[in-house]
Amino acid sequence: MQRPIGILGGTFDPIHYGHLRLAEEMLELAGLQQIRFIPTGTPPHRDAPQVTAAQRSEMVSLAIDGHPAFVVDEREVKRERKCYTVDTLRELRAELGEQQPLCLLMGGDAFLQLHSWHEWEELFGLAHIVVGYRPGYTIEERIESAPDALREQYRQRLCASDTLRKRPHGGIAVLGIPKLEISATVIRSRLAENRSIRYLLPQAVAKYIHQHNLYASC
Ligand code: ATP
Hints:
218 residues, alpha/beta, Rossmann fold, 6-stranded parallel beta sheet, binds adenosine-5'-triphosphate
């Protein structure tokens, strides 16, 4: 079986080192052949982002430029209608074939909200879910207070990372990945206050933000 392809969706508003380290660690730990960064178009779960989808996507391209295994996939940005992860995964599955292992990558915070995603239980028939969580901890404690349906799926599907390449979809793997205390929200508010964003995101992205005067008036 082929090595899995990772999919990292996000608003990337803007992309930062938290996203990039999550991707880099998952690439190694899950033995992925590639990670596709998929910026959302109009996100179903949040207010409209402050910069255009094309600009968010451009910043992802700048951030991953030169990485041999990272690619940007603009399908959601180019779609006119609202798009859901489940639809994107259906498209990818149709393009890549039934046997290709696919891993939907996310941070622990995103996983604990999975039950609020559109048709979330369908995701397991399309991809594995790979969750980055603090090393040395398990997600066990927090899953206890999650809704029953999410806890059940977690308990039934939890698997080791080497299972990810043995099956095309259906597992949940938790990988110990240090979380950098960086968020796009913090970057946006620093920019609004005219404070430094240096070392929170790649220099090329910071330059793009300054050149286009993004996030200045949020
Ligand atoms: P915002 O602050 O605007 O909510 P964000 O920085 O959390 O944005 P998203 O685009 O919403 O970024 O996140 C995309 C994915 O990246 C999610 O799965 C999220 O869990 C993960 N992620 C975001 N920041 C980090 C971080 N610092 N470390 C690890 N994972 C992260």
